[in-house]
Amino acid sequence: MKNLEIKVEVENLDDIKNHLVAGTYRGTLEQVDTYFLLGETKIKIREEKMASELIVYFRKIRKGSRESRYYRVPLTSHSFFVVKSALSFIFGIKVKVVKKRDLYIYKNTRIHIDTVNELGNFVELETVCKNSYGNKEYYNEHEEIKQKLSLGGYRAIAGSYSGLLYQKRLVSSF
Asked: pTM of whole model > 0.90?
């Protein structure tokens, strides 16, 4: 699958929630993402209360909106332990990201209001491009939501939470 995404750092999540008139609240998710050491390719296992999945994605590290290609594979409770153990043994664990995510949906866009342990507060948009035709409508929707939430006034994040957390831990270890 393909999406357009952007991540920005915010101090006060209420500022964003007050602008969130477009979007349906879908719940609060508690997620633990375990990332493995693979360089440019991102492979993680996401754990939630009732489910887990393997996610592989590819995207350029740059600030602002960017395209991402990803694959999601649901894991059963048995396959979760097998896959996580195998990936941990083969590649090693890079970092675990623990976050609370308020999820909103607007058309084809997932709006994530995230509080990430050790990092702070973020807003992430993921506009899913459901086919390779008509990408302009997805870009337009993505830009519309960025404007409605006034995301241009916040610091855009180039990488992933895993990269931010990994870097923070490297710096603090010196």
From this structure: yes
pLDDT in tens, 122-134: 999 999 998 765 6
Write the CA distances from 46 to 115, 117, 152, integer angstroms: 16, 15, 29
* Buried/exposed 128-151: b ≥16 CB within 10 Å, e otherwise: bbeeeeeeeebeebbeebbeebeb
Measured CA distances, 134 to 15, 48, 72, 131, 138 (Å): 32, 33, 23, 7, 7
- Token pair 């375990």 is found at 34
Domains and CATH numbers, the chain: 2-172 (2.40.320.10)
Scored b (16 or more CB within 10 A) or e, 10-45 reads: beebeebeebbeebeeeeeeebebbbbeeeeebbbb
| DSSP summary character for residue 63 | S
Q: 163: which DSSP letter?
A: H
